[in-house]
Design brief:
The protein has helices at about 10-20, 75-80, 100-120, 135-150, 180-185, 205-220, 220-225, 240-245, 270-290, 295-300, 310-325, and strands at about 1-5, 25-30, 40, 40-45, 45-50, 55-60, 85-90, 125, 155-160, 165, 195, 200, 205, 230, 235-240, 255-260. By secondary structure, the chain is an alpha/beta fold. The chain has a domain at about 1-160: 3-Layer(aba) Sandwich (Rossmann fold), CATH 3.40.50.720. α3 links the parallel β7 and β8. The longest helix has 22 residues, at about 100-120. The N and C termini lie far apart (about 45 Å).
């Protein structure tokens, strides 16, 4: 099988490339700025894509914000003649970016990927997010992208990961972003008080679990055509459980969560106020809501169950971060 993966340098995209190549497929990894494709184990060997599909992973530089992904007409023609499946994982996932960035990459980028898939009659596997309620610009853009997928008329599957974190077995992750940035500020005591509720829930899903589900959807596309499959952690963890776990680590600070309706940022120290304004406020909806997800459709299709969930998985993530020095 020939598979094209956008966002191949990202956390999920790289793991998907590794799995598909290991299964014997010809994978074309589409990247933007990065010249390498690396999963949590290290760099994945690639060769330049010159227009011919070959076993393993080949790489091609693209720009999803441009029609035809910025590719020359000859390369577009070769991709479209390849009888490919297209996995669309390219997205800006960082919070706090300007809405124009989300629109260009997450929304119009999806439209351009769909146009390529339509031209090549490619089955389309779209990597979205479980958090499509629209609490911030990122979520709103992913919701808009899903609407494009559903309105495209193409054969498509939507995969909805929750908060993507390190692997089940070791907690390893290639890049510390989003959740990890907030985690570091908290346990290092740089934000002692945060707006949040102790019964709020965080759904943490291992990156390998997400990639396994995406790869399975590629392999068995006909079984899930037209479906939406949440990729979630199995059991969310409450902020109370997070605080109790942090207290087990002598070097960690234990945060105080203050109900949002009484929290006052102007009472923070100048340093903590800067961290609040730059980072914490972006994650406030995640710290106050008891959001949970139903994944019966995923469980019926994808029989691999999480090997570790909830507090046990979070502990593994923390241990990994300590072992490599990200946390102290």
């Amino acid at each position: 099988m020939n598979v094209v993966v956008t966002g191949a340098a990202g956390l999920v995209g790289a793991e998907v490339c590794a799995r598909l190549a290991a299964s014997g497929h010809s994978v074309v990894a589409l990247t933007h700025r990065s010249a390498t494709v690396a999963d949590h184990r290290g760099v994945i060997p690639t060769t330049p894509f010159g227009g011919r599909f070959a076993a393993g992973v080949s790489r091609l530089t693209v720009d999803v914000t441009r029609p035809d992904l910025g590719l020359a007409a000859e390369l577009v023609d070769r991709l479209c003649r390849g009888r490919c499946t297209l996995v669309h994982a390219a997205a800006v996932t960082e919070f706090g970016r300007d809405d124009s960035v989300y629109d260009a990459v997450n929304v119009r980028g999806t439209a351009h990927a769909l146009a390529l898939a339509r031209r090549g009659e490619m089955p389309f596997v779209h990597v979205s997010t479980a958090y499509v309620a629209g609490a911030n610009g990122y979520e709103r853009s992913k919701s808009a992208a899903e609407r494009l997928v559903r309105g495209s008329g193409l054969d498509a599957v939507v995969i909805r990961p929750s908060i993507v974190v390190g692997t089940e077995a070791t907690g390893a992750i290639r890049a510390f972003r989003s959740f990890y940035v907030l985690l570091r500020l908290i346990v290092e005591g740089k934000v002692g008080a945060l707006p949040g509720r102790y019964d709020a829930l965080l759904d943490l899903v291992a990156v390998d679990r997400v990639a396994d589900l995406v790869a399975d959807a590629v392999h068995r596309f006909g079984e899930v055509r037209g479906r939406t499959l949440p990729a979630i952690g199995g059991r969310p963890v409450s902020l109370r459980e997070c605080s109790d776990l942090f207290a087990e680590y002598p070097s960690f600070r234990v945060p105080k969560f203050v109900p949002p309706e009484v929290f006052r940022a102007d009472t923070l120290s100048p340093a903590q106020r800067r961290y609040h304004d730059r980072v914490v406020r972006l994650y406030e909806p995640y710290l106050r809501d008891r959001t949970s997800f139903e994944d019966s459709a995923t469980r019926a299709f994808h029989h691999r169950r999480p090997g570790i969930t909830g507090v046990a998985h979070l502990r593994r993530l923390l241990d990994y971060c300590l072992a490599i020095g990200y946390l102290r």
